[in-house]
Write a structure and sequence with these properties.
Length: 207
Amino acid sequence: GTSQPYTALYGAPSLNARGDGVFGAIVGTTHELGEVSNGATSTFAINSSAPQPAMDAAGDMVVTSTNRSTGLNQITLFRNGFVSQTSIATGTDFSYLDTTPGISDDGNVVVFQGTLTAAGATHLGFSAGAGIFASVNTGSAWQVIRVTGLMVEVLGSGGNNDGVCDAGETCKNAAELGYDDNNSPINFSSYPTNSRIAVTNVDFGAA
């Protein structure tokens, strides 16, 4: 009805253990994120046709949206109440970013599916192509690492034989899921779209 605050609400909201929540909505023609925390609602306008945010224990949120200038997807971390935002991944390094990133309960690890470009591979220091990635809060910066889609050096193929896939070496897919009965590596061959990636960050303390 005309008295409702939202024109439409998207599915796939996210809640944390203390009852905070984040959801996608349309108000008139504006797409926005709405956060409910400690009984108060705050909103932030985003460019996304179907936002699927995820929330951590402190109320921080991660979401995929579309950059208005480039038209490419980007993943952004918003602090509780939208007081600040941090870019996690952008079209500068990725030709594709999936719509359902995840975040650890402590907010220190953001995971997402994407396709790393050749330029992004040079920038980040690992192989291009599709895979699952994690952005880890080191305390001073957010560092992106590749979780799946890993490549390793083919030993004895003329490289330095350290097992690391360096530029110019002959490489193969890593055994991400172990080996089969024929000792052949098992790995992910493809990734579904719009499928939430879960992550748990376990702190074992100082080494």
